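Quick check before the chapter quiz. The format below is the same one you will see on the exam, so make sure you can read both the input and the output lines.
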Amino acid sequence: MTSSVSKPVTSSGRYLVVLSVRARKPGESVTIYLSGASKRRLRVRSRTAMLDYNLTVNRMPAKLTARAVSPQPAVALAMTLKSEAATTPPTPAPTPTPPATSPPSFGPAQYPNPYTNLVLDDEFSGASGSAPSSANWTVATGQGQCGNDTLNSNTTNPANVQQNGQGQLVITALDNNGSYTSAQIESTPVTSFPYGAVEARIQLPPGQGLCSAFWLNGEASSGCSWPCSGEIDILESPAFGTDPDYAIFTLHGPITPDTDGGNYQQFETSTTALGDLSAAYHTYAVIWSPNSIVWTIDGVEYASATPNSLVGGSTWAFNESRAYSIILDLAVGGWPCDSGNPVAPPRTCPGASFPAKMLVDWVRVYH
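Here is the expected output.
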């Protein structure tokens, strides 16, 4: 179960964050997640524990959110913030200056997740070399999926997909003398959709011509298969030429008539605001509510869609109750190597160095 607490941050700088974690009984096992900090696990041995964090907050306005995940709904959280600047003697006030002609730009605000019931949490904590949990995932085989002329096939080989014994799932693309292999995992269908939050913490691989993706595919039902069942692409990151920083957000669903060559793409937008996505882990998520889907990266909104956002002739397929599967995959070639790219590919495509590794720290679903 999940408990959470949030505090607004009114100015940038260094902060001491103190979390008080209180459990109903001694020995409760709790995992703590604080925005901007690594997760921490603990046992609350005397019913109450204190955790200290030192964080630097640079983007304003902001809100720090902490979540406690425990087997029982028995954990309470409290948070206090203390600016490190407050411990230093005050400095004389500067000479007043005329007001600026326009307010400063502090970047987008944090977007809160309103869903708190954690229904899936895979931390990929298995032994080194082991497959992802069969209770949660199936490792798919067949052709890679990144448009026409995708070069890789997907395998179940541990060389292509395994847990690394350090808390991550590793999907590895290999160049076998010009024959490429990689992997795709698909979750068991997650029920109780529509509506909820789906998120994963991922470090993408560098290299032109790779195509990383994290997406949701609606389960087919009688008379309603894809695209009627809907697809939400939480992240597509094709590495186009010299621009390895595309984060693309897409919806696929029914369109009458389809004018997109069978792709049934109802909505798409992108950002390059984070720069090279392979340089660090980022948390990619969708917050899914009635007539609304919001995409976030590290808690910041980068895209949103409603029925009015879709191309003409589209039917909003995302208010209907059906199960969805979560898919994570790393493909080689295809779309990033097409001549119609936003950035023309080089003569040799892909130009990535192999092996190329996509690291998944965790996947979570909230209802």
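If your answer matched, good. The CA atoms of residues 42 and 364 lie 19 Å apart.
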